[in-house]
Amino acid sequence: MANKGETKCLKITNTNAISGVDKTRRFTYKQKAGKHTKKTSISIGYILKDLLNIADNNREIKYIIDNRYIVVDKKLVKDHKLPVGLFDIIEIPKMDKYYKVDYAVNGAYVLKEITKEETKYKICKIVAKKLVEKGSAQLVTNDGRTIITTNLAYKPKASIKLDLEENTIQEYYPLEKGRDIFVIGGKHIGLSAKIEDITPGTMQRQTLIKAKEKGIDFETTEKNVIVIN
Fold this sequence. Notes:
Elements: E1 9-11, E2 27-29, E3 42-43, H1 44-51, H2 58-66, E4 71-72, E5 75-76, E6 83-84, E7 89-92, E8 97-103, E9 109-113, E10 121-133, E11 136-141, E12 146-149, E13 159-163, E14 168-173, E15 180-183, E16 192-199, E17 208-213, E18 216-221, E19 225-227
Antiparallel strand pairs: 1-2, 3-6, 4-5, 4-7, 7-8, 8-9, 10-11, 10-13, 11-12, 13-14, 15-16, 15-19, 16-17, 17-18
């Protein structure tokens, strides 16, 4: 039998917690692989219909996309299956509405309304660094970006404040004691906290972050946090 390829829809039973989808339904919109993985993203079509409630069906979603009403991270959306993930910036200029993708404390994605000024930048975590030529380095971020820089002080596990229009680094947030973090994994997902201590990792153990949020101490691994300030 010939290979039919991937299915175009996604069964509710196969969705992950970040979608926060209504389990009484049978299908939802399936996102493509892209700058975010399928495990860490939801489709822009799902956002328009189920989170923003500005479309009732697939025809209306495609009409909105085809008329170039939606912008994600300063780029026009051309596909209703575009994957959208943590801290992505969604703009709807016709409605003068602007949103940032965030985590709720239950691990589901929510949209936080922001100002037009706040759409100019986003926080990205540096997940890899590679020297590409003398005096330059290539940074890879959690949202699939590659940035060439001459500042070799930037390190993986830290974060940057990225100018989305110029694709340049505005600020650098190293992973260190006293920094503010946002928890993106584990049982404390969705919490904002301050780093109290860092236990360096070994070949057998990951780096551990001890943090405090509203007087509550907790510990998690480095991969579960992103520095936000």
